[in-house]
């Protein structure tokens, strides 16, 4: 279940949703909220996104991308 981005927790793997050109999209990699912003949980790089919603990242999400 998607939750409002204002309630996103810090330092845990989350799946983010963003809206591009009026269409919602799910990011296909886990992200972590940090004091500096959002980072890709797989490589630690900051991600330039403005997410609108989040949900828990499930381990099976990573496995299904392989």
TrEMBL record:
Record protein name field: Uncharacterized protein
The organism of origin for this protein: Consotaella salsifontis
